[in-house]
């Protein structure tokens, strides 16, 4: 599911390793927020007192930059190359494309850091909502076995490659 979010964000079918790298960086950032929330306490003094935590935060940010910046830059270059060649075939517009072309009210474009932060929020928000929806679906399937049976029957009806014996075995009837 995460690969779909990455595709929507960066507009490219990326290598599995790159997707795993993006996922790892995002997961580390998300799971570390509880330990880093102390950094908002007295920010100037906190940089001295909580130097180790700040270094941990900066290291996570550098990891995120090393993974996301190349994807943003590649998309920018692809867009630039296509416009220079004057190709009439348009790229599929992704989230990064909209951010690269966005002009703020003061007339400036977003910086790479701002684009990276927005992409990170996009990926985290998409992951969280999808995960929550799947949890609710599974909880309701467990709570309502008759709906679960109906779903299994419907899936079996669509799965044309399975024979009756295999379906019965999966349902525990053999």
From TrEMBL:
Keyword Cell membrane: no
Pfam families membership: p450
Compartments in which it is found: Membrane
Residue stretches of biased makeup (Basic and acidic residues): 164-174
Cellular compartments per GO CC: membrane
Chain intervals for the UniProt region annotation (Disordered): 155-174
Molecular function, one GO term: heme binding
Keywords: Membrane, Metal-binding, Transmembrane, Transmembrane helix
Domain of life: Eukaryota
Keyword Zinc-finger included in the entry's annotation: no
Membrane topology term: Single-pass membrane protein
Entry protein name: Cytochrome P450 89A2-like
Natural source organism: Nelumbo nucifera (Sacred lotus)
């Amino acid at each position: 599911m995460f690969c779909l979010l990455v595709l929507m964000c960066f507009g490219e079918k990326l290598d599995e390793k790159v997707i795993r790298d993006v996922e790892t960086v995002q997961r580390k950032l998300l799971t570390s927020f509880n330990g880093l929330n102390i950094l908002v306490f007295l920010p100037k003094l906190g940089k001295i007192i909580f130097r180790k935590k700040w270094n941990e935060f900066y290291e996570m940010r550098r990891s995120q930059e090393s993974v996301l910046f190349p994807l943003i830059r590649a998309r920018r270059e692809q867009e630039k190359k296509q416009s220079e060649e004057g190709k009439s075939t348009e790229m599929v517009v992704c989230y990064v494309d909209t951010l690269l072309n966005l002009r703020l009210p003061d007339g400036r474009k977003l910086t790479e850091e701002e684009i990276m932060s927005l992409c990170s929020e996009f990926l985290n928000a998409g992951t969280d909502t999808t995960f929550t929806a799947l949890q609710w679906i599974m909880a309701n399937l467990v709570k309502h076995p008759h709906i679960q049976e109906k779903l299994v029957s419907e899936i079996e009806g669509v799965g044309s490659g399975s024979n009756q014996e295999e379906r019965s075995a999966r349902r525990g009837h053999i």
